[in-house]
Amino acid sequence: MSWQSRLPPELLWQAAAQSPLLVALFDEQDVLQYANPSFCHAFGVAEGEQISWASLMRRNHARREGSLIETEDIDTWLRQVSTRRGKLPVRSFEADLCDGRWIWMTETLLHNGWMLCQACDVTQLRHDERALRQALQRAVRDKQTDTLTQISSRSHILRLLQRDLKRLAVSGRPLCLAVLDLDHFKQINDQYGHPFGDRVLVNFAARVQRQLRRSDRFGRLGGEEFLLILPDLQPHDVTTVLTRLCEDIAQPVSLGEQPAFRYTVSIGLTLAHPDETADRVYARADRALYLAKQGGRNRVVALG
Ligand SMILES: Nc1nc2c(ncn2[C@@H]2O[C@H](COP(=O)(O)OP(=O)(O)OP(=O)(O)O)[C@@H](O)[C@H]2O)c(=O)[nH]1
Fold it and tell me: Which EC numbers does the record give (predicted)?
């Protein structure tokens, strides 16, 4: 026995009446011949009302209900939509409703020329999509940020360096790279404890950050080692800036229980050459840093 012969027709009506899906039938003149309660509610249609699709849209537009139609000129809008409506056997699209919901509408042309319209509420899906997008943005931001100091993470600052080196190859403008390393940091940890060492790192990052230009890039490579990229300045000028920074960092600060705590930083500086790899530039800056440490710390050494 087929379903058709088994199924009482009124059950189909009841099912459509209770369905959260929006269901409607338009005849070959595009006049509404049936709409279930969900459709009626969403589009402001009265039970049993026969209204053409164009009139319904015009009314919805005037009353700001049903489909959200963002136009001043409803006639032009109707003309444009009429070029698509009923032109394909099946057509699906997303539409906004004035009440804030989003629906996914499918229009199916039936054999007799009528059109079956069915729509489901996809508002939640769109919200989930947005939540997913936001989670992705958060994950990217977290990956780019050093958890402790809130400056660029190692991977991010190294990626910025690669990008700046590529630009240098094209622009030829000067690009300086500095490696900054806190002095005797192990002693600080040993004497005051690891959490205090963390506070020193945070304090250092904040103090350096305050002195930078917007175009400078600053990141933590790991431990007490930091990387600074300074575009568009010659090494001579950068040496002056960083020497001042060293002097500033050496000033006592109030940190935790210590009202006048002093720490210093050593800096290795170099100028990147066009077509150089990040590894090569970094190695030279690191050698300069080594010389700064050897030379007594709390200083800047530049290597060309
Ligand atoms: N508090 C804290 N300490 C860290 C962190 N990462 C690394 N360290 C410590 O930093 C210290 C670095 O010590 P060293 O590499 O010997 O360098 P240093 O004592 O600063 O000596 P110089 O660089 O030669 O002046 C080690 O004791 C690490 O355990 C961190 O995130 N927080």
Answer: 2.7.7.65
